[in-house]
Amino acid sequence: MDQTPSPETDEKLFAAWRHAKPEQRRAAADRLFARYYERVGGWCFRLTGERESAADLAQDVFLKAHRHLDSFQGNSQFGTWLYSIARNEAINRSKRAALPMDDSEEALLDVATLEPDPEQLAARNSRARWLQTFLAQTLDEKERTVFTLHYGDELPLDAITRLLRLENSSGAKAYIVSAKRKLARAAQRILARGDRP
Amino acid sequence: MNDPRDAWREALAATPDCLALERLGEPLTAAEREHLDTCARCQSELALFQSFTSDEATPEETRAGAWVAAELHRRLDGAANVTAFEPRRRAPRFAWAAAAAAVFVIVAGLWMEKREPSLGDAGVTNVYRTGRLDAVAPLGDLAAAPRELRWNAVAGATAYTVEITEVDRTLLWHSETSATRIVLPPNVVAQCAPGKTLLWDVAARRGSDELASSGVQRFRVAVPVPGR
After folding, report:
1. Which positions in chain B touch A105 (Cβ < 8 Å)?
2. Do the Cβ atoms of B11 and A112 come within 8 Å?
3. Coil/strand/helix, residue B11
4. How far apart are the first and last CA of chain B?
5. Which residue has better confidence, B156 or B99?
6. What was the pLDDT predicted at A159?
7. Which residue among A154, B82, B109, B226 has its CA within the 20 to 30 Å range from the CA of B98?
8. For A65, which residue in chain B has the nearest alpha carbon?
9. What is the pLDDT of residue A9?
10. What stretches in chain A show pLDDT beneath 70?
11. What burial class does residue B51 get, using C-beta atoms within 10 Å of its C-beta: 0-12 exposed, 13-18 middle, 19+ buried?
C-alpha cells in the first residue's frame, strides 16, 4: 500500500478552507496562500525592483485575496484568480503614481485623436477597435505589448523591462521610442494622403 | 482631451471581445486565438500573465522572492482578521516621534503586563482587527441599475472607501466619502448592464486604520423579460 501522502493541490486546500470551522479558516487560507508567497513575491519584485516595496505590494495582494476568497468560484485555476488580484493591485498602484506627461508624448495626441474614415469606423464598430487595428498594422508585437502596458496600464518602463525580460541595453524605452516614431510617421501619412489603415 | 495618454488609455482598454483574465491560464478556443492575434490589449495581458507563471528567474529574483515570502509569513501568517498593516518603513522626519512613541508604548506595555494577562498573540505586531460593516444596497438581483451605494455607519469612522469590481476583480471604480451613501457616476451606472454581476465592498476607516469591512457584496441587474 502506498503510504505517500497525496500531494496538496490548490483545489484540495481551497475545499479544506471552504469546509473549515470558523476558527480554523484563517489557518486553512494561510496554507493555500503560502504556496504562492514566493511566486507573487518574485513577481512583485520584478515589478517594483525593490524588496521592501515588493513585500508591501505582495502583502496588499494577499490581504485582498483573504478578504475576497469567498468570491473565488473555481471558474479558473486558483493561481489565475490570485494573479488577477496581483495584476489589478499592481496596475492600480501604477495609475495612482503616474508621472506627468513627457513633452515627447505630445506627438501621440496626433495619433490618438486621428479621425478615421466613417466607413472604416462603422466596420470596426468603435474608435477603440480602429486604433487597435492601426496599432496592429503599424507596430510589431513586442512594440504593441510594451506600448499597451505603458500607455494602457501605466506601468513604468523599468518594470516592463524586468517583467518582459527585455535584454536590449535600454529595455522597454527602446520599444517605446521606436513605437512613437512609427506611429507619428503613420499618422503623418494618414493626414497627408487621407488614406486610412 | 489634452493628455494623449487619456485617449490611449481609452483605446487600449479591454473591449467586450477581449479575453477575461480567468481565461488566460486555459487552452484557448479558435475564436479566442483569432482575437488574440490582432488585439494589443490581450497580447499584453497574456505577456503579463506569462511573466507571473514563468519559472524563469535570475538569482537576484529568486533571492528576492524567498525574502518576500519570508516577510509575508512574518507579517501575515496566523494573524486573525488581518485587514491592514502599517508599512514597515517610516518617513525619516517621523523617526524621532516614532522612537519616542515606541518608548512610551514599551513602558506602558510593561506596566500593563503586570496588571492584566495578555488577550492574544503577543508575537504579532501592527495588526488591526476589523469589525463588521453592514452593506445596505445594492444587494442581489435588482430591477434597475443602482444609482448609489448605501451602508450602515460604523462608530468612530471618519471615512469610507468603496470600490466596485468585475467578478474577475478588475477595478471599475473606487471612491471615498465621509457619508454612509455615495452616488455612482453615470459611467459606472452605465456599466451595470442587465445580467452582469458586479462586486462591491466598503471599508470604514479612521486615518490609515481600517475599522470595519463589509466583505464582498454582489448585485446584478435583472435581464428584462420580453412581453412583461
Report:
1. 4-5
2. yes
3. helix
4. 43
5. B156
6. 94
7. B82
8. B169
9. 93
10. 1-6, 96-128, 193-197
11. buried
Give me the pLDDT at residue B168, please: 62
State residue B16's pLDDT score.
Answer: 80
| Closest chain B CA to residue A33 | B77
Instruction: State the complex-level ipTM.
Output: 0.85
Half-sphere exposure of A27 (CA within 13 A, CB side): 5
Instruction: With beta carbons under 8 A apart, name residues in chain B contacting A53.
Output: none
- Chain B interface, mutation test: which of A80, A94, A129, A130, most B Cβ atoms within 10 Å? A80
SS3 at position B145: coil
pLDDT digits (tens, 9 = 90+) for B127-143: 333 567 888 899 888 88
CB contacts of B169 in chain A (<8 Å) are 64, 68, 71, 81, 84-85, 88
Q: Which residues neighbour A6 within 8 Å (Cβ) at sequence distance 6 or greater?
A: A12
CB atoms within 10 A of CB B38: 15
* pLDDT (tens digit per residue) in B74-95: 888 765 444 444 344 434 444 4
Half-sphere CA count of B147, side-chain side, radius 13 A? 0
And the C-alpha cell for A2? 502506498
CB contact under 8 A, B73 and A34: yes
Annotate B21-63 with DSSP letters as a single string.
GGGTTSPPPHHHHHHHHH-HHHHHHHHHHHHHH-----HHHHH
Cell of A21: 470551522
Strand partners, A113: none
CA-based end-to-end distance of chain A = 67
Is B10's CB within 8 Å of A80's CB? no
Nearest to A65 by CA among B6, A57, B50, B191: A57
Q: What is the CATH number of domain B131-221?
A: 2.60.40.10
Please state the domain extents for chain B. 5-54+90-115, 131-221
Identify whether the C-beta of residue A140 lies closer than 8 Å to the C-beta of residue A175: no
Q: Which residues of B touch A164 (CB under 8 A)?
A: 47, 51
Return the pLDDT at B11: 77
